[in-house]
């Protein structure tokens, strides 16, 4: 079954930011918008896989930073 489509209007600035983001991440506009809506509406099960991976990478970076800081404090 095909997914329903919607049409939205964006300000030129928001569209430019979206365009820059998809180029930087390699995501599609649909993935970014669906991910943003899913996160905003707290529908975690609807998050695209690429969005989940990005979130995990951010968390991993934070954990690595905390480990490094803890090791530095012990020395």
Protein model, in words:
By secondary structure, the chain is mostly helical. The protein has one domain (12-74). Helix content is 69%, strand content 0%. The chain is elongated, with a radius of gyration of 17 Å. The N and C termini lie far apart (59 Å). The relative contact order is 0.08. The model has no long low-confidence stretch (mean pLDDT 89).
Give a brief rundown of this model.
The protein has three helices and no strands. The protein is an all-alpha fold and 75 residues long. The model has no long low-confidence stretch (mean pLDDT 89).
Specify the structural class. Answer: mainly alpha
Report strand %.
under 5%
Percentage of helical residues? 55-70%
> What kind of sheet is the major sheet?
none
Number of DSSP E strands = 0
Sequence stretches where pLDDT stays below 50 over 5 or more residues: none
Number of helices: 3
What's the gyration radius in Å? 17 Å
First-to-last CA distance: 59 Å
List SSEs in N-to-C order.
Answer: HHH
Query: Which word captures the global form?
Result: elongated
**What is the averaged pLDDT score?**
89
Number of self-contained structural domains: 1
């Amino acid at each position: 079954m095909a997914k329903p489509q919607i049409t939205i209007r964006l300000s030129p600035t928001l569209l430019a930011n979206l365009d820059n983001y998809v180029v930087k991440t390699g995501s599609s506009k649909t993935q970014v918008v669906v991910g943003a809506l899913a996160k905003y509406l707290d529908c975690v099960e609807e998050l695209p896989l690429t969005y989940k991976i990005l979130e995990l990478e951010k968390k991993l970076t934070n954990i690595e930073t905390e480990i490094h800081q803890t090791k530095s404090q012990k020395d």
